[in-house]
Design goal:
Layout: E1 6-10, H1 15-26, E2 30-35, H2 44-48, E3 55-59, H3 65-75, E4 79-82, H4 89-92, H5 96-117, E5 122-128, H6 151-170, E6 173-179, E7 182-183, H7 192-204, E8 211-213, E9 219-220, E10 223-224, H8 225-236, E11 243-246, E12 252-253, H9 254-263, E13 270-272, E14 279-281, E15 287-291, H10 309-315, H11 323-338
Parallel strand pairs: 1-2, 1-4, 2-3, 4-5, 5-6, 6-11, 7-10, 8-15
Antiparallel strand pairs: 9-12, 13-14, 14-15
Helix pairs in contact: 1-8, 3-5, 5-6, 7-9, 7-11
Bound molecules: NADP nicotinamide-adenine-dinucleotide phosphate and ligand G4F.
Length: 344
């Protein structure tokens, strides 16, 4: 009897790691999750999805080549999904070298290890719409030139091109998923969407008074993470590796996200003032949103809007959750967490 297909997922502790593990388990895979930490590792996201006991966790850091090689030789996965990264754009301005070592060199380590030990394995690289940066056209698709605006974006552009090069030079089955922002109740609290939904839930429960934000005008194409991890798996099932954009094709500003999140708990935000003096108030005049200029980035990506026509036509992929449903889902989940109704 042949063994179940094996998948190795790096970044298993992250948002996408948990949803992708769930997707792969649903498809009958034996799932190995690579986690850079050791000892007291907790996997709250996988626990939330009820899959913690079904994923075999291995210790692996993308900056350690021999560690990667050893794990590939031991596990011999059929498919390798590289989701590990220093993924917080804002932090990359202060940590450009760490960001490059993990997000760029780390991908090269993985590709070299695959070429050496497992050239038949299929590879997925978590590329990012952040590579489009100061966008050259709107909407952005697979042919849109990159103009990254952060050390993170630059590192992801390197990782994208080295993935393409290993596909073309060495014949690896390697795909690059150029994913636009995708969110969920499992999103890290440093990202703006979850920062907002968590704050709204805490404000609603009387545990917090206000939220301070940076640039309210930035626009993002926000989708649901579970839709995107299915798209990643679909890419890897194609006969040849390729590049695909995953996006909803709808963009909203951070300001609109704030308004939708407060609306989900029955509050309407009215804005007054300008610049750092701007305030978001609820009906009785209480200030709930303030501006913190230190949260602005040295170079910003003003607007992202993706065109996922290729993924729709070739993979049959499409997003299932609208912006409004996504915001409502995240607020509802954070309200449950505040009430202590979710496992931590
Ligand atoms: P995430 O929640 O931040 O997860 C990233 C994971 O990478 C974390 O669990 C982190 O481990 C791990 N990691 C960091 N440095 C590592 C290292 N040196 N070696 C091994 N693992 C390391 O990010 P995500 O939202 O799930 O995103 C998954 C991937 O997609 C990332 O590559 C991200 O850049 C990319 N991406 C995300 C989006 C999005 O909107 N979510 C869009 C486009 C692309 P710790 O838990 O130990 O910190
Ligand atoms: O939520 P963000 O931190 O996500 P960002 O920078 O778009 O990056 C995310 O999406 C990328 C795909 O395009 C991924 F590759 C990346 O790994 C990550 O998942 O910020 C979104 C926008 C930015 O324009 C930021 O300036 O929100 C603006 N913003 C305004 N106030 C804020 C805040 N961002 C954060 N994190 N915190 C704020 O208080």
């Amino acid at each position: 009897m042949s063994r179940a297909r094996r998948a190795l997922v790096t970044g298993i502790r992250g948002q996408d790691g948990a949803y992708l593990a769930q997707t792969l388990l649903d498809e009958g895979y034996e799932v190995f999750g690579a986690d850079r930490r050791n000892g007291d590792s907790t996997h709250w996201r996988m626990r939330r999805l009820g899959i913690e006991d079904h994923v075999r966790v291995l210790y692996m850091d993308l900056t350690e080549f021999s560690n990667i090689l050893r794990i590939l030789e031991e596990v011999r996965p059929d498919e390798i999904y590289n989701l590990a990264a220093q993924s917080f754009v804002a932090a990359s301005f202060d940590l450009p070298m760490v960001t490059t070592q993990v997000n760029a060199n780390g991908v090269l380590h993985l590709l070299e290890a695959i070429r050496t030990a497992l050239p038949e394995a299929r590879f997925y690289q978590a590329s990012s719409s952040e590579m489009f940066g100061r966008v050259r056209e709107t909407p952005q698709n697979e042919s849109t030139p990159f103009y990254p605006r952060s050390p993170y974006g630059v590192s992801k552009a390197y990782a994208h091109w080295i993935t393409v090069n290993f596909r073309e030079a060495h014949g690896l089955h390697a795909s690059s998923g150029i994913c636009f922002n995708h969110e969920s109740p499992l999103r890290g609290i440093e990202f703006v969407t979850r920062k907002i939904t968590r704050a709204v839930a805490r404000i609603d429960a009387g545990e917090q008074q206000q939220i301070a934000l940076g640039n309210l005008e930035a626009r993002r194409d926000w989708g649901f993470a579970g839709d995107y991890t299915r798209g990643m798996w679909q890419m890897v099932q194609q006969p040849e590796g390729d590049d695909y954009v995953l996006a909803t094709g709808v963009s909203h500003s951070v300001r609109e996200f704030v308004e939708a999140a407060f609306e989900a708990v029955g509050e309407r935000i009215e804005w007054d003032g300008e610049g750092v003096e701007e305030r978001g108030r609820v009906a009785d005049g209480t200030v709930r949103v303030t501006i913190d200029p230190t949260l602005r980035r040295p170079t910003e990506v003003d607007v992202l809007l993706g065109d996922a026509t290729k993924a729709r036509n070739q993979l049959g992929w499409k997003p299932t959750l609208s912006f409004e449903s996504l915001v409502a889902l995240m607020v509802e989940d954070d309200c449950k967490a505040v009430r202590g109704e979710l496992p931590s």
